[in-house]
């Protein structure tokens, strides 16, 4: 369900034809339906990722979408390294990376001058690039294909949710179809139905935040060009004076161009070809050959719901929080929502964890949303100064940044998406060993696991070994009886040992380049407990079975 649809364009997407997925009548329409474990409303990127994750965990899930195709026109395009790592775990990153345009370098210009450039992945030994650019319809098509291949996932197209009644232990849903309405129920309903979320509206809930008084023209053009696959951002360029412009390369020689227009711009007029073409000609030169595939005018918002969980109804992605696109924090934060929620629903549905574990989703992801909103708001304020004094400050920063590194930290053309560090999560076990480093980028409790190359029986990348659920990453021996006890509990813990022979039931990996030990500040005996979403929840300088068991209980809200 895509309530926040992109406005229809005057142009035709010539490089892509939307697939049509068949509507199929289901048994629920002819009989009293059973209560399903999970219903996901919305087959966009977040809803599909959540459904795939649940399906891989053995949780049956029904996905309801009021359309019969993937997204139409130009929407999200930038997918961050952490999102790609999540999609790797879901088994669908490879076609997305192969089709998309990977990049690490960004350049910032002021008028004609290069102010500075940055590198998203500034160290060796990472599987995925900092970003991959890919039109959202390609990404969704890959996710649909993956969902169809995972047992237990039902994709129901042309199934529009028209009503719901939340209860103490289930949610009753009314659905409209080409064959008329029907009803079904579920233990948990997850609303992934976009910025204008009909589910949110049916429950009388609202998002709070601000709308920025500016407008942007977003155009996708098909063009043969030798521009490198980099992010280029201009402040006050000579071809669009007084405003900003952003350029990205996508798949199939399609380029995304964002033109800042100002609040007084007429959206209907600015979408007309006779207004768009002169802007593109001024930017690309009179000899450039291109076709406009899509164009629209946007006003950006930074908003979120107060709470993401309301009883048995949970909100994820744009339905829960909405940010401006500067920094690519929208879809990427939505993937992290799904990554955070799926394993918690699995444990609660199986009776191995209390509902408080789902409540921790609200605690963790509202904090992450606040961080994204703060960064997105700061980016938008820098790009669109609200007063002459703010513009003078911004332009002075840009001038200084050409020569002085300290000023480059102040330039904000969009702080690009980074994974949330859940440092204040109630699921974390505080450090008891004082010598662990705790600065930015360190593997503190709440941090997402860093990848690194390894040598092992199944692959060259560390994150591949952290996909099996709760994992103890040990840089030293673990007694065989402890490995067995951790594996046999109601919530199993898998043991991965680095640089030592594996105990029975554990997996041994190597660290020939030393990057695993370096990124985890490991000494002989160091251990990390990692959650199923690959976030650290505890760490020690020596293995201690009772401490691991206590940390596991805390990480699953059982204490």
Provide the CATH topology of the largest domain: FAD/NAD(P)-binding domain
Structural class: alpha/beta
Shape designation: globular
CATH architecture of the largest domain: 3-Layer(bba) Sandwich
Q: Bin the strand percentage.
A: 15-25%
CATH H-level homologous superfamily name of the largest domain? FAD/NAD(P)-binding domain
What is the tally of beta strands? Answer: 26
Rg from Cα: 24 Å
Reported for the largest beta sheet, the result is: 8 strands, mixed
Query: Uncertain spans, ≥5 residues at pLDDT below 50?
Result: 1-8
Text of the CATH class of the largest domain: Alpha Beta
Overall mean pLDDT score? 93
- In total, how many domains does the architecture comprise? 3
> What is the helical fraction, as a range of percent?
25-40%
Number of helices: 14
Q: How far is it from the N-terminal to the C-terminal residue, by CA? A: 37 Å
Written description of the protein model:
28% of the residues lie in helices and 25% in strands. With 559 residues, the chain is of the alpha/beta class. It has three domains: 27-100 and 133-208 and 302-374, FAD/NAD(P)-binding domain (3-Layer(bba) Sandwich); 216-299, Alpha-Beta Plaits; 421-559, Glutaredoxin (3-Layer(aba) Sandwich), CATH 3.40.30.120. Strand 9 (160-166) and strand 10 (171-176) form a beta hairpin. Helix 1 (45-56) runs parallel beside helix 4 (136-149), helix 1 (45-56) runs parallel beside helix 8 (330-349) and helix 8 (330-349) runs antiparallel to helix 9.
């Amino acid at each position: 369900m895509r309530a926040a649809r992109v406005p229809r364009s005057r142009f035709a997407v010539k490089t892509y034809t939307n697939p049509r997925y068949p509507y199929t009548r289901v048994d629920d329409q002819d009989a009293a339906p059973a209560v399903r474990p999970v219903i996901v409303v919305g087959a966009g990127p977040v809803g599909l990722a959540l459904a795939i994750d649940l399906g891989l965990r053995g949780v049956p899930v029904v996905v309801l979408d009021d359309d019969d195709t993937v997204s139409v026109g130009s929407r999200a395009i930038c997918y961050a390294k952490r999102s790609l790592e999540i999609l790797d775990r879901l088994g669908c990153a490879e076609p997305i990376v192969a089709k998309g345009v990977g990049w690490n370098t960004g350049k910032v210009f002021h008028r004609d001058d290069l102010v500075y450039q940055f590198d998203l992945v500034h160290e060796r030994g990472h599987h995925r690039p900092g970003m991959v650019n890919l039109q959202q319809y390609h990404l969704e098509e890959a996710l649909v294909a993956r969902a169809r291949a995972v047992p237990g996932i039902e994709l129901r197209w042309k199934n529009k949710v028209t009503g719901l009644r939340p209860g103490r232990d289930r949610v009753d849903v009314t659905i409209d179809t080409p064959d008329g309405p029907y009803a079904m129920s579920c233990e948990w309903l997850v609303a992934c139905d976009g910025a204008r979320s009909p589910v949110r509206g049916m429950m009388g809930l609202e998002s709070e935040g601000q709308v920025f008084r500016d407008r942007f023209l977003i155009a996708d053009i098909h063009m043969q060009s030798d521009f490198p696959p980099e992010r280029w951002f201009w402040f006050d360029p000579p071809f669009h004076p007084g405003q900003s412009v952003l350029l990205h390369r996508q798949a199939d020689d399609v380029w995304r161009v964002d033109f800042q227009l100002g609040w007084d711009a007429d959206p209907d007029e600015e979408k007309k070809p006779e207004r768009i073409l002169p802007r593109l000609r001024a930017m690309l030169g009179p000899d450039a050959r291109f076709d406009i595939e899509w164009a629209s005018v946007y006003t950006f918002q930074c908003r979120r719901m107060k709470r993401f969980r309301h009883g048995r109804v949970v909100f994820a992605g744009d339905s829960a929080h909405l940010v401006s696109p500067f920094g690519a924090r929208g879809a990427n934060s939505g993937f992290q929502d799904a990554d955070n929620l799926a394993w918690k629903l699995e444990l609660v549905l199986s009776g191995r964890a209390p509902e408080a574990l789902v409540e921790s989703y609200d605690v963790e992801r509202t904090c992450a949303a606040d961080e994204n909103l703060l960064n997105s708001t700061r980016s938008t304020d820098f790009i669109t100064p609200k007063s002459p004094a703010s513009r003078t400050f911004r332009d002075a920063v840009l001038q200084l940044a050409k020569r002085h590194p300290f000023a480059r930290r102040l330039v904000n053309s969009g702080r690009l998406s980074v994974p949330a560090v859940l440092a204040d999560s109630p699921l974390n076990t505080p450090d008891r060993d004082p010598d662990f480093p705790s600065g930015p980028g360190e593997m503190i409790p709440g941090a997402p696991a860093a990848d690194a190359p390894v040598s092992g029986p199944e692959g060259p990348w560390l994150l591949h070994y952290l996909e099996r659920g709760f994992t103890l990453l040990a840089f030293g021996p673990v007694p065989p009886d402890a490995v067995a006890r951790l594996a046999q509990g109601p919530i199993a813990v898998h043991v991965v040992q680095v640089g030592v022979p594996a105990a029975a039931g554990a997996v041994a990996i190597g660290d020939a380049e030393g990057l695993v030990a370096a990124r985890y500040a490991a000494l002989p005996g160091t251990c990390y407990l990692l959650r199923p979403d690959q976030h650290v929840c505890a760490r020690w300088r020596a293995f201690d079975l009772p401490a691991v068991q206590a940390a596991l209980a805390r990480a699953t809200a059982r204490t």
